[in-house]
Each structure stands twice: as structure tokens, then as C-alpha cells.
Amino acid sequence: MELYKENQLKIYNSLTKTKELFKPVTEGRVGMYVCGPTVYSNAHLGNVRTFMFFDVVYRYMLHLGYKVRYVRNITDAGHLENDADAGEDRISKRARLEEIEPMEVVQRYTVDFHDVLKNYNFLPPSIEPTATGHIVEQIEMIKEIMDKGLAYEVNGSVYFDVLKYNETGNYGILSGRKIEDAIHNTRVLDGQSDKKNPQDFALWKKADERHIMRWPSPWSDGFPGWHLECSVMSTKYLGEQFDIHGGGMDLKFPHHECEIAQSQTCSGVTPVNYWMHTNMLLLNSQKMAKSTGNYILPNEILSGENEVLPKAFSASVVRFFNMQANYRSILDFSGEALEASEKGHAKLIEAVNFLDKIEAGKTSTFSVEKWKKDCYAAMNDDFNTPVLISHLFEAVKTINQIKEEKASLSADDLADFKTTLNAFVFDVLGLMNESSEGNNSDKLSGVVEMLIQMRKQAREDKNWALSDEIRDKLLALGIQLKDGREGTSFSIN
Ligand SMILES: [Zn+2]
């Protein structure tokens, strides 16, 4: 029997602000859409937190035996800096600055995004559609909205008529904004705005001469509004009504609010059954900002090449750290907190690695059944990973007691214990068994250890150039050195 049949999963729905029993549209199947990155710059750590959480949601759904279609888009058409309504779009601005093709920018940062996800052990989504690959469908949806009388054209641009939608619909249903406050800040050029009302948002914008990314449409040569692509791609791949839509909480308004209005207009039904939003991420208790220097790229955490953390941390430690906080709480990223997580992570992995050396006893002194139930109960309670981790540490305690011959597990219990612990640590949380990664090749480990010793000697000789060269060349090969109090360790990506 599939595990989902015996697990009552509850999800906190941002739309109703309550935890609700998860009931998929189609039994045994889950459709999930998560708003992906805009690929005009390097992957942002705050976004990585969001994607990492939904990676765990995806992993847990798969673990429960659901067939999951997970769609995470790539925003490559470029949305406008000023709330998708006016000004130069971000991707063409970057392209102009760097004097390269917009699609070159897109390609560069898509590759960077995938590199980050690979380093952090993400499962790829089932479909990763791009906005530029769905221009035709976006034009079709605009036509449909115009046919329903809820969009109008002015000077080659098309806007969604929010006030008219609100005569029967409920704009603000997700964000809780009142219609009079739900204003889309449009840069008003020369006191002119094409929109009928400040609440309206663009579905299509006519491109001015400077705008490089443009497509023909019945209204003008232009480009789609940002909110539209997610309505189009979620409907295309998951249907008019699907299970889960996720994103960072900053996307609730206007992005998700606009998605609901667009989709509901076309289909007449509520598009999403469970809205999930992750909270924000702070760095050293402050908002991350390039301008203040309180900023770090996800890959810089791994390399240690940054000004804000005391040393490098492994991807698995960062995953573990992320999962120690509930996704609906603010996460404060700091060197101190990561160091604490590193210790906990090492204890957990060490215990898991000891599992194979454990021999079954005659009886069990630990209730595996109850522990297992607790682990599932934590995840079934709106993916409460910090509580799950506390139960994983009960397992660590038991393993250590068995080591000291103060506890035992029967053969059946031991088998169940091993399977469950491995499943939660590696399959669900996506942690990596760093200490065993080198075991594939003892020779490789030996060579790296030798280089670590040579680097240590170089440092003692104050030959910094050589010590840096050893570190950098290993990193280029995907071997990362980590300096800690107990010496230098390494991980292989
Ligand atoms: Zn979106």
C-alpha cells in the first residue's frame, strides 16, 4: 500500500490561513507549481531557501508514493523593474549594460541557477518551462481575457481591468489587500498613464525602440506582463485546477493575486487548492543587500570566498541548517548558526554511517514503531522539518546507546529503523553523506589528504600563494577544502 494512504498530510493554506487536510484533485497524483527565478542575475540565497523547501515537499510527496508533476518556471522574458508596468525590462537592461544578447544573459544565469541547484542536491522538477517558450499561449490567454470583457487595449498595450473583475471576483483574496489599496505602482511618464485605474496591471506591453526582447501580437510588437506566464504555464501543464502553488511570501502581492484573477477569468474556477509561501531569509540578522555588503551568493557559502561568513560550509550542512527552521518562520543565516548546524549534521551523519555496523539484539529497548510514527507525524504537520530533525536525534541517541551496549534492537526493528532513518535523512531532507563520498576511491582520498598536508606545510611556511593554489585547483576539480578547528576536511561535489 502506498504510504500516502496511511498518512494524513496537512498543509497550511495561505489562502484560508488554516492547516487543511491535503486532498489532491486526482487521487494518488500531485500537481505542484513553484514560481522560478528571473534569470537576469545570479541565484539569490533567499530564493534558494524557497526552492530548497519545495524540493523537500517534492521529495516527501514522492516518498509517500504520490506521482508528482512538479513545474517550476524560468522567467526569461524579463519583467519590468517597476511592477511589470513601465520602464525598461530587467533582462534587456542587463544586456544593454553588458553589450550582449538578452538570451546570452538568460543562458548564463540559467546555467548558474542549475549549477547552484546541483551543488545543493536538488531534484530537478518534472517540467521547467520558460516564458519565452510560451509567448503564443500567453497571447491566446490575453485574447481569452479580452473576450470575457476583462481586459482593454490602449496604444498597443493591454491591461487587466481589476475593478471590473472585482464586480464578481475577489481581487485581494490571497494578500488580504482591499481593492482601493491594491495599486500597482506605475511610473507615470509625463503625467500620463494608459491605465483606466491604478489597480490595473499589464498583460501585454508595447515595446519602445530601446526594448530588444519583443514579439509580434495583434496589439503591437511587444512583450507579455510578468504575471501572465505563471497562469499560462500552470494551466497548460497542471490544468485549470491544481493542488499546490508555492513561492516566497513576497510574491503574494501582486504576482499571485494577479495569477488568480487571470486564471479564474479564463476558467471560471479557483485555480489553486493549496497556496504555500515561504518566509524571508536574513543574513546576520539583517536584510540581504548588495549595496550594504551584507550579501552572499549560494556558491560562495561552499567556496568560503566571502566576507560575511567565517569559513566555508558544505551544501549538506546548509540544507540541514535550512531545515532546522520552519519554512513559515524567518531564517537568520549566520556563521555562528551554521557552525552549530555543522556539529549537529556531523553527529547525525556519523550515526547513520554507524548503522551498518550495528548487529541485531534479541529484544528492542527502543520503540521503532513509535519513533517512526513521530517522524511521519512531523512531516504530515505541514512539513515541520525542525520537529522531524528532533526525532532524528532521538535515533542518534539510540544508535550511540547501542554503540555503548546500553540499548539493542531486534532484527526486524533494526531493519525498519535503518530504512526509515536513511529515507528521512537522504531521500526526504536530501542531505548528503559527505564522509562516504570519498570512499568510492580510497586513492583519491589519499591524494587529497596528501595535498591537504602539503597545504598545511605551505601555510606554516607562510607560502600563501602555494596554499591558495592548492585550494583553488582542488575547487576547480570539484573538491572543496573546509578549514575547521579539528583541521582541514574535504568534500567532493
Ligand atoms: Zn509566478
Protein model, in words:
The structure is a single chain. This protein is an alpha/beta fold and 493 residues long. It has three domains: 3-278, Rossmann fold; 301-432, Isoleucyl-tRNA Synthetase, Domain 1; 437-492, no CATH class. It contains 16 helices and 17 strands. It has helices at 45-63, 90-98, 102-119, 135-147, 162-168, 226-238, 252-267, 298-303, 315-323, 335-354, 368-380, 385-403, 411-428, 434-437, 442-460, 464-476, and strands at residues 10-13, 18-21, 29-34, 67-72, 80-82, 86-89, 151-154, 157-160, 201-206, 222-224, 242-248, 272-278, 281-283, 286-287, 331-333, 479-484, 487-492. The strands form six sheets. It has a four-stranded parallel beta sheet with strand order 4-3-11-12, with helices on both faces. It has a four-stranded antiparallel beta sheet with strand order 7-8-9-10. A three-stranded mixed beta sheet has the order 14-13-15. A hairpin with a 3-residue loop joins β5 (80-82) and β6. α2 (90-98) packs across α3 (102-119). The longest helix is centred in the C-terminal third of the chain and has 20 residues, at 335-354. The chain is globular. The model is unreliable at 81-85 (pLDDT under 50). It binds zinc ion. Zinc ion is lined by residues 35, 230, 255.
